[in-house]
Amino acid sequence: MRILFNNNIPLPPLELLHSFFFLEPMEWRRTYGRAPKMIHLEANFVQFKEELLPKEGNKALLTFPFLHIYWTDCCDTEMYKSSVKEDMMRWQNSLRTHGSSDWVIIVVETNDTKKKNKTNILPRSSIVDKIRSDFCNKQSDRCVVLSDPLKDSSRSQESWNSLLLKLRTLLLMSFTKNLGRFEDEMRTLREKRTQPGWSFCEYFMVQEELAFVFEMLQQFEDALVQYDELDALFTQYVLNFGAGDTANWLGSFCAPVRNWSGLLLRRPIDMEKRDGIQRGEASLLDLRSYLFSRQCTLLIFLQRPWEVTQRALELLHNCVQELRLLEVQVLEGALDCWVFLSCLEVLHRIEGCCDPAQLAANCSHTVGLWAAAHTGAVHHGVPAPSGLDFTLHFNSLQSPYKKLKEALSSVEAFERHYLELSHAAMEMYQAIGRLRSARLVGKSLAEFYMRKGDPERAETFLQEALKSYVSEGWSLPVTHTRRQVAECQKLLSKTEDYLQTSALLAGDVNLTTEERKHFCQEILSFTGKSGDQPHKVTLSMGVFAQLTQLKFHPATASVHSGAVLQVELTLRCLMPVSVRIQQLVASIHFEVDHGGTHGRSKGAQRQTHPGTVVFSQSNSSVGPPSSSGAGPSLELDEVQDRSPSDNSLNSTGVICKNTHLLMRRHDSNSPPDTPNCISPPTVGIKEGAQMLKVQDVTLEPGNNSITFTAPPGTYTLRQLCATVGEVQFILPHIYPSAQYEVYSQEPQLTVEPLSEPLLAGLPQKVKFTLLTGHYTVKKGDALQLSNTETMPILPSTSCTARISSPTSELVGESTLSIQSSEKVTSISLPPAPPYHTLEFQLEVLCIIPSGADRPANERLTNGEVRHRPRSYSHPDTPMTAIDQRMSIDCPWSIYSTLLALTFYIPFKTKHSLLSAGNRKYIQVCVQNVSDVNFTLAEVKLTEKQHASLELQSLNTKTQQLLCCKHSVFCLWEVRWKDDLPSCLQCVFSANFSPLSQDISAYKPFHYQFQLERVTTLYSVKAEIFPPAGEQHCRSGVLCGLEVCITRLTDPAEGEIAEDSKTETDGPKTTKLMYEVADSSSNWAVCGKSSGMVLMPMTANATHKVQIEVMPLFAGHLPFPKIKVLKYLPHTAAVAIQPDPDSCVENDSLSLLDKTLDDQGDTASIRSRGSVHSVGSGDQQQKGVAMPRLDPFSPGQVFNHSHARQVLVLPATDDHIMEVNAT
After folding, report:
1. Which regions are flagged for Low complexity bias (predicted)?
2. If you average pLDDT over residues 792-798, what whole number do you get?
């Protein structure tokens, strides 16, 4: 920043002032809310001259005086009044005239002046005050005192610091104010761009002045923004010109280009081009070159050299387009020279600011410039220096102009530089992974070799370029490049490769018909030669014809060995003329897993074939489909292993049918296996493969149909081969795979129910299906079914068999002859041809098991032991299932066929014994668990062993409706004359039928069960007595509970008894355990709640127990629950682990046998649960014989007070209740 000073005294050194200014940064707060920045002020002190003051309209910021300083050391008042004051006034008048208001007066104070004028001077303060009074009335800070500036003292240092701070502040304020004014004037000038006479060059110089100021302040980013705005503004005007909106000032840029020297980046400012812009004489290339050179300089300052390369590529492209839009005349080759030299100049500039390691690591940024230079060299024969030399020998590079002059000196020098540049660009592209760009450079290099007559090198680069075109789907470049490849191969005498490429071109629709016929004739000419080749030439089928469709007749693709299966192929010939094929062969693969002629492993579960397979095709001129890159998809099939006897499933699995495609090794350098490739791989028909053949077929252009006849077996079509003379066209893989089957099937017999589920006890119809397979059913053939007692076959007067063809068409019907004997049922079959279906129905009945003893095992007709069917619970239904198996002897096999049917019992039956004192009742519950409504009739209950026993029915209805998911209860009273037997063998029988059928359809149902220990041994009676003096019990007051246990019968055989310990010869006694418990918490048992009694084993023996209980609630409370258990001493216990069914956990109870014997009736057992075992747990686990408790069977103990209740009154306590009434 310029500072003008006026002085009449010697000044301190300007270098010292300059260094002091730049030493400390200042915070610069800009206008319009922009973020503050820290900047270093750099001042330029210039002697004051009036001609240096800015004139009206001057927009130069770099030479603008931002601050004016007046230096004086005047100490004498007379001198001040006579000369200094007048000089100051003239100085200020000059500033005021030119509009400069930023000034400061510095008064220098030294010790020498003090001593020299000691007697006739006034105090310093009076001179300073005088100056401030005369010139700084309202701005007193504009007058600054500097004390002893040349001395090294603290006072001098403080004075300097104060002065420098004041100068920095005033300078920054002036700069900010004048910069804001400059920016406003610049915006005003830019807004006038639509007015006539506006000049872009004039505006360019104004905004560049602002950029220079930012660059001076080292604000390079802000300076770059100014040039970017100028770039965008000029670009927009050029685009508008192309759209028809012209500007007058653009005429100077439309002048013909006379200078194409390229960019000049080694100088910070190209003053020659800047002067041309300032004069309005610059061309478009001059403006762009100068603008880019300034942007490049600032980007280098910002340490962003790689952005320079990116902008350089954009500049080269935009300049070419702008020259076309502005219709600027350029000499031929001049623009390419400018591009070439500019690229090298940018690379030179990047070299100067980066080390070799950085250049090698960031070659992806510079390779574009090398490619651009190569393009210019290709277009107009302008060579460029070696990129490899640039990478390895940066400092040895010659000037771009010297290289250009050297390359143009001779053809050999041009070729040498051109090849070096091409190979270097390819290597750099490959190093950064841009293979497509490298191959494009290689294609241009191939054309160069073709012009030189070197097809061998040219073919290599053409093949690489063709890979890119094919993979990216460029149709026309693929065709053009293939023609060039074919030309190279013909010159190199590569016969097989040339035929392959010719076939591709003959089927390419991008060529004309004449061109396609030419290449097709090349192939046919070779096929007409005989004996010249040692072996046939193998080519890919995809370049000759395409398999579009495969159709089977019949569509199922599966016929028996007596029928004919035809395979029809549709081939789309790609040749433009008719081609005669000597032989067309389809290779087929035998499928061992499907059984071939020995049988079909999958049987009826074989998947149905669609009948027609359509093969997807892609245009031969474009890239391969997306699936080709990923390879063929998995082709999976299900494999099942079934038993040959009953067709039951043993195992299942998954198999991959196209493993030969998926498990191949792919070479990374080989092309994909599609007809769009450069050279499809050579494959041959596998040796020893079975084939389908046709002879002498003529393929016309377009779709052709060829039909094969399939041999017996299960085969998959794998390959296709067409032979034309000495050439074989082979389709290596037919995908998706097509499979057919000409089978020889064994007869199969299946039995299945007509309706689900099969109900036991009712007649059910089942369907017999016979697939005759290769067997011919003759007259007299019969099926021999083994009869069983549990599932007899019901006789039928009319049973018709239906015979149908493989296509399910009815062939005929015939009445079956069924003959039954004691063990075998014979069914005579009607005659039926092979591979037909014979169907008939039989009625069977599964007997519901009654639970009786099983008879001895029977034997089937084949000698095997018949195992009785067992019922079991099925997880999918509440009904009980029964599996019935039948053995069938068939005339076509020496082995018996075992078939199984599952029946379900529709009922669940349970029984119970009920007692009322000595009276006994038997209840049977029949539950219908099926979905059918039944009618029950003639319900009976009989006892098999005791004739004197009478079962009196209490059932009033003779028929009862039993709905689905409902139950029916039946009740009988047991009556006896002498003694009630201890064990009863009962049989429940009833007739049932579905609700929709009449009485003739009733079927019997039996249910056998056994009741043991049905005699009542003991009766238990309980009474509750209120407290003395009370008529009723009250809650919270103790009451008396008297329990009376009475023996009703004499001891029977098997009852355990022991002698009384007090009377050796007395009556037999037994030990009983009683327990009083209340699970509903209505009573509190006080004191003893359980104990043991010795009960005489005589009729009417009675024992009473007194217990105190307390009712806890008022009301009619049920009696506490009273349990009586059998106590078995340790002598009767078995010395093993106790039966878990007879043991129940108890609460802290551990009584030994001795303890019970000693305490007897006075034992107090603190247990609220059932006591089923006593003794230590450790002793039980060790198998020691311990006493235990056994419950009585249902009916052996009758409790008279089981359902009794007693009235309990509330307590008589008086309570006070407060009631507020309003």
Report:
1. 616-633, 1164-1177
2. 81
Residue 174 has pLDDT above 60, yes or no: yes
- Would the pTM count as exceeding 0.70? no
User: What residue numbers bound the domain in which 804 lies?
Assistant: 748-904
Residues 249 and 180 in one domain: no
The C-alpha R_g of the chain, in whole angstroms, comes to 60
State the Cα angle at 969 between 965 and 971, rounded to 5°: 170
- Say which DSSP state 777 is in: B
CATH number assigned to the domain comprising residue 879: 2.60.40.1510
Q: Is residue 1156 part of a domain?
A: no
* pLDDT tens-digit readout, 844-901: 889 888 765 444 455 555 555 555 566 666 666 788 888 888 899 999 888 888 888 8
> Which distant-in-sequence residues (6+ apart) come within 8 Å of 943 by Cβ?
949, 951, 984, 985, 986, 987
Q: Could you write out the three-class secondary structure of 315-378?
A: HHHHHHHHHHHCCCCCCCCHHHHHHHHHHHHHHHHHHHHCCHHHHHHCHHHHHHHHHHHHHHHH
In a domain, 468, yes or no: no
- Strand 1058-1059, strand 1068-1077: pairing: antiparallel
Q: How many CA atoms lie within 13 A of 705 on its CB side?
A: 6
Residue 519 is assigned to a structural domain of this protein? no
Tell me the average pLDDT across 312-317.
86
Q: How many CB atoms lie within 10 A of CB 662?
A: 12
Q: How many residues does the chain have?
A: 1222
Whether 845 and 920 map to the same domain: the answer is: no
3-state secondary structure 645-671: CCCCEEEEEEEECCHHHHCCCCCCCCC
CATH number at residue 32: 3.40.50
The amino acid that residue 166 corresponds to is K
Contacts of 895-902 spanning 24+ positions with Cβ under 8 A? 895/645, 896/860, 896/861, 896/862, 896/864, 897/645, 897/646, 897/749, 898/645, 898/646, 899/646, 899/749, 899/750, 899/751, 900/646, 901/751, 901/753, 901/758, 901/766, 901/791, 901/844, 901/846, 902/757, 902/758
Does residue 986 share a domain with residue 873?
no
What distance in Å separates the CA atoms of residue 365 and residue 362, rounded to the nearest whole number?
6
Cβ–Cβ < 8 Å for 755, 573: no
Question: What is the distance between the terminal CA atoms of the chain, rounded to a whole angstrom?
Answer: 101
Overall number of domains in the chain: 5
